[in-house]
């Protein structure tokens, strides 16, 4: 028995001494892992290759990582995957960190990254929802680095959503936090991006050089070269194509090495555009094709739309009609998808805004209900006053619920109007126009009434957008519609089918009357004074007309025949009216 006890104590001391020997080694490994993780975090965008090497090294020694270090590694892996364009994997990793990490700071960073990554993958509603939840936590976060990351994500996300005023607002808030290092670079880059998209960035703006100097100092390759794309674009807007080429060619090697699809696609497109302007078609074709290839992982972005358009123009210039047709088709598909993306972003922003308002109202209602409970508890001690106060309380609750129901109804009406009417011009959206037109066509058919259908399209609208900017294009669309409304009859249905294309259904109208009305519309549009837009240009439109006696009582046939007539107007020189025959 004594011998067995001696063996037990011997085994115990062996284990104890082993733990004493191993513990310092284990502690050293944990500390070394922490240092590597922090180092990788610090250079994640300034030195992408070294960042990947550090993560790969940690992945080979996961057995030495604590659970929280594994969560930290997953967060950085998510960033690396997002940086490489693999957004789906990045989202999985960020959500894993959000679910498993015990660190509120790491969860905050993961939540901000989910918001950013979800928006990049076009899950716009999810992205904005996560962003709102993250920003709600911002007052509780004391860590300045994390606070700055949250503001960065807000500015980045709003810029991606096309809400550049909000993007600029959060970029300025980020700058007010006195960021240092890469955060200062990103803050300046985001501010310049928002100003560039809002058309308020001038070529001689001192912030451009300040942003470049800051990003170069901290070896932020991506931020530095994104700012260079804005400068190159401003050069080309001023006709200084050689200066743009020199700037782009000087830094193409480091841009390619960064392997950041958004940057490389924009860079190659600008190179293609500059070479095209200088009639170097072979180089323009090569860089445009590279821009398309770099954009493949990003979906239908603006660089891929513009690159397909440029490839189409090059093919036409080289009389390669087969390639030109192929590029034209690809451009049409990409352009439509890009416009759909913009629409989806706008709808997501409106939806989340309404949901936020509704949630705040519900919280207010709960607060009111809590107040009611407190009042009831107090009133229970005063039997004489209980009935009178209870009646007052019930009336207040009913009034509040009625007010809440009324406001909810107003919200529903506004949402329905957003769905039925075009937010820019105020006329019927395509879907609502189709519904109203179907009902009117059925009535005309049943009563054997003649009716006419007019389709018109603003001429060279893209040139207006490219030359003067989208705000001027929007101004042209709104004023063209106002001009047409002055000659639209009470029962006529006017709708926007998409982009710069509009349609009018005229019940009880013969071809001669329709032709006169279309001519009135054409003349009214042609004489629009554009000086209020800040630019001097002419707006014209091409019209196509058909009637039920010519095309039948099917909306698709009326649209098809009017479209054929409209395109004949364009082929015959634009700014004219053509009747389908």
Q: What characteristics describe this protein?
A:
single chain, 581 residues, mainly alpha, Serine Threonine Protein Phosphatase 5, Tetratricopeptide repeat, Alpha-Beta Plaits, five-stranded mixed beta sheet, 24 helices, 74% helix, flat
> Biggest β-sheet, characterized?
5 strands, mixed
| Name of the top-level CATH class of the largest domain | Mainly Alpha
Q: How many β-strands, per DSSP? A: 5
The whole-number mean of residue pLDDT values reads 83
Helix and strand sequence:
HHHHHHHHHHHHHHHHHHHEHHEEHEHHE
- Counting DSSP H or I runs of 4 or more residues, the number of helices is 24
- Tell me the distance between the termini: 115 Å
Strand content: 5-15%
Report low-confidence residues grouped into runs of 5 or more: 12-26
- How many structural domains? 3
Residues in helices, as a percent range: over 70%
CATH architecture of the largest domain: Alpha Horseshoe
């Amino acid at each position: 028995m004594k011998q067995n006890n001696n063996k037990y104590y011997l085994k115990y001391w062996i284990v104890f001494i082993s733990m004493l020997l191993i513990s310092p080694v284990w502690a050293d490994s944990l500390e070394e892992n922490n240092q590597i993780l922090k180092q990788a975090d610090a250079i994640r965008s300034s030195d992408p290759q070294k960042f990947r090497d550090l993560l790969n090294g940690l992945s080979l020694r996961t057995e030495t990582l604590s659970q929280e270090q594994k969560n930290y590694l997953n967060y950085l892996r998510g960033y690396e995957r997002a940086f490489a364009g693999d957004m789906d994997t990045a989202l999985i990793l960020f959500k894993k960190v959000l679910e498993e990490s015990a660190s509120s700071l790491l969860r905050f960073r993961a939540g901000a990254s989910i918001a950013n990554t979800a928006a990049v993958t076009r899950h716009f509603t999810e992205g904005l929802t996560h962003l709102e939840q993250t920003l709600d936590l911002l007052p509780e976060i004391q860590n300045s680095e994390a606070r700055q990351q949250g503001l960065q994500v807000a500015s980045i996300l709003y810029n991606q959503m096309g809400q550049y005023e909000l993007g600029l607002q959060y970029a300025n808030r980020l700058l007010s936090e006195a960021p240092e290092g890469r955060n200062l670079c990103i803050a300046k880059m985001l501010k310049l991006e928002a100003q560039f998209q809002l058309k308020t960035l001038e070529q001689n703006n001192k912030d451009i050089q300040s942003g470049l100097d800051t990003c170069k100092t901290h070896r932020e390759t991506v931020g530095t070269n994104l700012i260079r794309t804005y400068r190159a674009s401003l050069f080309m807007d001023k006709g200084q194509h050689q200066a743009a080429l020199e700037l782009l060619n000087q830094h193409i090697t480091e841009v390619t090495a960064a392997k950041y699809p958004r940057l490389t696609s924009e860079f190659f497109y600008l190179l293609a555009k500059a070479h095209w302007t200088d009639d170097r078609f072979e180089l323009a074709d090569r860089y445009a094709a590279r821009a398309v290839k770099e954009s493949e992982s990003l979906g239908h972005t603006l660089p891929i739309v513009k690159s397909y358009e440029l490839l189409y123009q090059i093919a036409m210039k080289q009389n390669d009609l087969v390639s030109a047709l192929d590029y034209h088709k690809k451009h049409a598909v990409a352009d439509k998808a890009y416009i759909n993306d913009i629409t989806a972003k706008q709808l997501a922003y409106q939806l989340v805004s309404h949901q936020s308002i509704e949630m705040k109202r519900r919280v207010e209602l709960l607060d009111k209900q809590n107040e009611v409970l407190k009042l009831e508890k107090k009133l229970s001690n005063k039997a004489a006053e209980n009935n009178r106060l209870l009646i007052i309380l019930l009336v207040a609750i009913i009034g509040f619920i009625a007010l809440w129901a009324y406001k909810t109804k107003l919200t529903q009406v506004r949402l329905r109007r957003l769905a039925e009417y075009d937010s820019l011009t105020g006329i019927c959206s395509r879907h609502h126009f189709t519904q109203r037109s179907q009902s009117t066509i059925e009535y005309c058919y049943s009563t054997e009434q003649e009716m006419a259908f007019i389709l018109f399209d603003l001429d060279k609208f893209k040139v207006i957008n490219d030359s003067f900017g989208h705000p001027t294009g929007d101004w042209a669309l709104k004023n063209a519609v106002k001009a047409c409304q002055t000659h639209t009859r009470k029962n006529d249905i006017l709708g926007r089918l998409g982009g710069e294309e509009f349609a009018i259904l005229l019940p009880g109208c013969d071809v001669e009357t329709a032709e006169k009305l279309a001519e009135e519309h054409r003349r009214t549009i042609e004489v629009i004074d554009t000086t209020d837009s800040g630019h001097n240009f002419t707006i014209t439109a091409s019209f196509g007309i058909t009637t039920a006696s010519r095309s039948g009582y099917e909306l698709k046939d009326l649209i098809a025949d009017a479209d054929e007539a409209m395109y004949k107007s364009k082929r015959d020189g634009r700014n004219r009216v053509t009747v389908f025959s």
